[in-house]
From TrEMBL:
UniProt cross-references to Pfam families, sorted A to Z: NAD_binding_8
Transmembrane segments: 22-42
InterPro entries associated with the record: FAD/NAD-bd_sf, Retinol_saturase
UniProt keyword list: FAD, Flavoprotein, Membrane, NAD, NADP, Signal, Transmembrane, Transmembrane helix
UniProt similarity note: Belongs to the carotenoid/retinoid oxidoreductase family. CrtISO subfamily.
Protein name in the entry: All-trans-retinol 13,14-reductase
Cited Gene3D superfamilies: FAD/NAD(P)-binding domain
UniProt superkingdom: Eukaryota
PANTHER family: AMINE OXIDASE DOMAIN-CONTAINING PROTEIN, BLR7054 PROTEIN
Amino acid sequence: MTLCCDSEMSLTTVDRFPPSEMVLVEMYVILAITSLFFFISLKMLKRGSDINNCFRKMICTGKSVDPPLSTEQIYNILRNRFNPSIVNEKWDVIVIGSGLSGLTVAKILATAGRKVLVLEQHDRAGGSCHTFKLDKYEFDVGNTSKMLKSALLKSKIVKSLHYVQDMYPGKELYRICSAITDSQVHWQKMEEPFDTIIIGERYYGRKTGNSMHFRDQLKLWFSEEADSIHSYFDFVLKCLNINLWWLTGVKHLPLFFVRLLSKFSLINFFTNLFKYCELNLIDVMKSYGLSDDVKAIISYYFVNYGIPPNRASFLQHNLFLMENGYYPIGGAAFLIASIVRSIQNFGGKVIVQADVQEIVFNSGRVNGVKVKHGSFEYIIQTSLVVSTAPIIKTFNELIPQNIARNSVMFKRVNELNSLETVPVGGFQAYIGLSGTQNNLRLPSNNFFWYKNSNPYEFDHYLSLSSSEAMEYGCPAQMFICFPSAKDPTWDERNPGTSTCQLISIANPAWFEEFKDTSKKNSIKRLNRAEYTELKHVIGELMLSQFLKLFPNLKSHIAYVEFSTPLTQQYYMRNAYGEYYSLTQQIDRFKLKFWSELRCKTDLPGLYLSGQDVLFCGIASVLYSGLITAGNILERNLLKDLKEAYNEQMDCDRK
C-alpha cells in the first residue's frame, strides 16, 4: 500500500478501486442490483415508531421517580440463584450471560411484553461489569473501558467499567443508560486531565475535547512537529466525516449481496469506510514523519481495545478516542442492579449460578438450553436464544457441532480467530489501601504508563519466554486507576479504605503449563509453587513501577492480589485469558469478516449480542444489545428511544 504524506493523505489504494477485468455493461448491471438491494434493506431498517414503542414504558430522561437501591437490595438483586422450580416453564426468550449487552436485550424485550429469562454462570449478575470483594476491598472486574464514535448516529459512542464517555443529558448514550436503568443511575465527571500519558518519566495530561482538541494539545507539546501533526489530524477528520452507517448497515444486508459487494469491490463505489478500516495505524502515522513520542501519544489508548498500533486498524483507533470521562455514582454494581430490578419489574428473571452447557435444537431450530446445576442437568424450553457468550465459545462449545457446522458463521468465525498472530492475555494487580481518597489525595483520572515510545515494545514483551519476562522488568505498558476516587459515594459503602487497579498484559503461553486440564473449567493450578512464583514476580515488578509513580502510597498498601490469564480464562470463560474474546486485529474489520459478525444468525431462533458483534467496550455492547433487540422486534429502536425521550421531556416541561 502506497502512502503519501501531503495534507490530503492521498492513498492510492484508498481513493479509487475500479473493478478489474469487468465489462462496463456488467458493472452497471451489478451496480443497479446493488442499489436496489441497498434501498430495500435501508427501508426495512426504518420500520417502527408506532404505539408499540416499548421505551414509552421506561424512564428515559435521567429523572427517576423511585428511591435509589440500598446496599442490601443490590446484594440480593444480583444473587437470585438458580432453582429448577423457578425456571421450569417455557420462556419466550432466554439470554445467555448477564453482562450489559444481555441485560439491555432482556430489558427491552421484557418491556415489549416478552417473557425473558437471563442465565448467568457466576454467583452474581453483571458479566464484565460486576464487582467483587477481596478481603474488605471492593473491585471491578478490571478491563479498561472505552468509547467509540457511534456507527449508528455519526456522533460519539465504551470490559470493566473504569470510565465512560458522554454520560450527560442530551447525549444518546446517556438516554440509552437512562432507559435501561429507569434513570436510577447518575454519573460523576472525572477530574482534568481525565487521561494522563506517561512515557518513561515524561508526563502528558490529555484534557476533555475531541480529536481536534487533542491535535492542538499535541502541537503545543511538540511544536517542532506542528505541521505534520496538523496534516495527520486533517486525514483523521476526513476519515471520520464519512458515513459511518455502513459499519452496522452491512450487517443487515443479505449475505449473498454483501459477498457480491466484496467480490467485485463494489462497496468502494458507495463508501471508503472499509478502506480506512484496513489501514494500519502505525503505517499511517509513519507516513507523516511523526516522531516516536508523538506516535506513542496519539496511540496511547490502544490498550482500550487490546491491540498495539502495529496491528491496529486506523479507523477503529480513531473511533475509540474518548472526549471525556464519567463514572457511575454507586459503582458498577449499582448500575447492573438497577437494570436487573427493572427487568424483574417487567416480569423477567435474572438467575445466577446457571451454567449453560448447550443450546438445544430440534429439527434445526432452537428449542431450549441445557443448564448444569450441581451434578444435575436441566433443559429449559424456549424458541429463541440470545447468546452473549464469546462467539467462539458459542459456536464451538454451546451449539452441537452437527448443527454449528451448517452455519456460514461457524466457518467465518473460526477462520478469523485463526488469524490472531500474537495472543494477548490479561494480567492485573488489585491493591487495597488504608485511608480515604481525601487523606491519600488520590486522583480520579486514569494513567497510561509506557516503558518507552517504541510501538513494537508491546509485541516484543509478549515474544519473551516466561523466564525472560521475569528479568525484563515491569511489562511494557500498564493502565493505572483508582476506582474509589471516581465514586463520590465510595466512603459511605467502604469507610476508611481505597482501591487501585493495575491492568497490564502477559503471554498466555507463560501460564499454560499450570492449567489443570482434567476438568473443562477449573481454578486449580498445577505446579502451584512455580505458578505462584511467576505470578508474584511479574506482579511485584508492576507494583514496583507503580510506587515509583506514587511513592506516597507505599506505607498505605494493606492488601495486594494478582490475576493472570488463567484467572481471566476461568471467570470469563474465554479462550486463553484475553481481555476481549474475538481478535481486534485489522482482519476483523475487513468486509469479508465484519459483515458476517451479525446479531441474527442463520440458525433459526439463535441471535447473538455483545462485543463480538460490534466492537469491544461498554458503549459498543449497549448498542449491540439495542441492535439485537431491534432485530428481534423488527424495529428501529434508536428512533423509538428518541421519540419516547422527546415525549417525556415535553411532559416534564408542562
